[in-house]
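User: quick one
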Amino acid sequence: MMNELRIKAGTSRKSAYDLRSPITEIQESHTLAIIVDNEAGVLARVIGLFSGRGFNIDSLTVAEVDHEGHLSRITIVTSGKPAVIDQIKNQLGRIVSVRKVLDLTVEGPSVERELALLKIKGKGKNRVEALRLADIFRAKVVDSTLESFTFELTGTPEKIDAFADLVRPLKLVEIARTGVVGISRG
Amino acid sequence: MTRAMTGAKIVLQALIDQGVDTIFGYPGGAVLPIYDEILIQNHIRHILVRHEQGAVHAAEGYARSTGKTGVVLVTSGPGATNSVTGMTDALMDSIPVVVITGQVPTFMIGTDAFQEADSVGITRPCTKHNWLVKDTDKLAEVIHQAFHVAKTGRPGPVLVDIPKDVQFASGTYTPPDKVRTSHYRPPTRGDAGAIMELAEKMESARKPIFYTGGGVINSGRRACAHLRQLVDETGFPVTSTLMGLGAYPASGKHWMGMLGMHGTYESNLAMHGCDLMINVGARFDDRITGRISDFSPDSCKAHIDIDPSSINKAIHVDIPIVGDAKRVLKELLDVWRTRGKKTDHEGIRQWWRQIDEWRKVDCLAYRPSTKTIKPQFAIQRLEALTAGTDRYVTTEVGQHQMWAAQFMGFHEPNRWMTSGGLGTMGYGLPASIGVQIAHPESLVINVAGEASWLMNMQEMGTAVQYNLPVKQFILNNERLGMVRQWQELLHGERYSHSWSEALPDFVRLAEAFGCKGISISDPSYLDEAITEMLDYDGPVIFDCVVEKHENCFPMIPSGEPHNKMRLGDDVEEKSIGASGAVLV
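Assistant: Done. Structure below.
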């Protein structure tokens, strides 16, 4: 519910993207999954392309996904006008170590998740309130001391934003986020 | 069959198996094992340049004039960094070059060792792909893949960085046919539906134009042959970018001359006013488009390119066709012929009538002089005295380059070598050396400006050492002519640092290098001097002292659309808007 409300203009995964004009001026957010050869310098090639050509990186994650095939999966959330998004995908496709570029935002429905660790310091009532909010968001306590909790929360970036906003007044002292990973449905 | 040998020997064997006959290089500590191997074989000729940048430009000239892949061998650190400009140049102009660099031994990488540089890191953005090879067993495979990547799809430079211990160590040699071919296989066949759509548009177009680029030349002679057939059979006018000159012959009756910032009036106005633009292997470069928002406003645009990222990058096109020019043009020709070779004859006749009106403007006209040599006149005389010969032309970068493109005619592909995308001053002399190596019996001329030429003049030593009869045709205006022109038109005639002071005496410089020097400043003796240059069997530095303040026209001022082109007589109106001045 909250997720639905926090969607930024132009970022809906439910739009009829195939019908969009490639020359509109609307900024869109896209989640790209880039399958690459897992070799030295491959991440530098990909992010060097973004910095060199002035493209945006809103979030970035990378890990090996196929040990035998030496393949890694880089997930990048990027934003730009539709023509720029197309250009990003085409430029990525040119990199010799890039095997495949998937645009999860337009290629059918997909699931996106991010993991965050949030450290909240406090005593007394605030501790109870933090636990209550964590319960609502299904955040897990992964570490606790007498004066702090560390929560693990998985969800969409919007859900993590929402949780972080709510616990910030309770003295949120540190937050670590993985960035988005995504996969197509079905 | 696989064999064990040292890494250095593997390098040589791999080059031989790739059909390499020439490498351009410069030795140094980190490539000495490879240089040892070069000494004890007879298959590959090594050309010793005087600077690593020269090696890459020479390899580019070799590659561009033959259609083969150029090969460069340089050492670690400064050897690699000096070759960066050449690789960037090759990347921008899509020239296949394999650069092999030595590297400090693997156990010293990252220690700031002597002559260590992060070569793969530095060259990542200026190569198509690069490799650091840490295992001698993988060396042959990587080199074979490097050649595959350099030549496949949109060509470009690649770099293979080989640490010295890998060169010394023993490993297994893998021949090319045993190498797991790279997954890198860009599509070459255009979409049949899109080709059909384009053929239909060609049938009804009233104001069509072919706009061709370096991609046609990279695709090869077959692509050029298909283009010629298509142009001649449809009767459509054709123009070309700087990189594409020669794909369609300048003597062809549908030729309109080069387009773009210093292209012909008729080409640019035809681009602006056309109703169907067929771009083959060009990339809507900013020198071509002028102001994007006013670029050819009323045309349907088709774009044939092997690189999907070139499509819709600068200009939105209506019919994108990703594929190799030779295949797509063949299919387009077949489809259009099968459908009955239809065109709108009446429309095209009127279109040509309009183009002929534009032609009457005579946009390349200049005010002749009997006192000084006009640079345009010098090129015209050079053209007149060499036309029809077995001739290759390279250039440096600047006004002389544009005049050469305007006044020289290229009738075959691979005869014109120039630095288009990067605009590298210092390209022409080493490129002319690479061309002459590949074509020892042909006439090779580098049309140069004195400032550009000085940037890599050390390569005259290479020309003399290998007795390469390259003709350095220097238009000497003692100015950085194009910079001066921009300062005149855009910066209120404030000529900040755009003159060449303390120039060498080029005749004595030639003598110092051990070649011939000719200096000429009187237009009435120009022909005689050019003939003397052509007749001399050896390298010549030709110092042609020209009019100092000549501007290159026509010109689309930056930030302006095609139909705002300035001709030579408009020079009184000098101001160019502030928004244009920001652009380069």
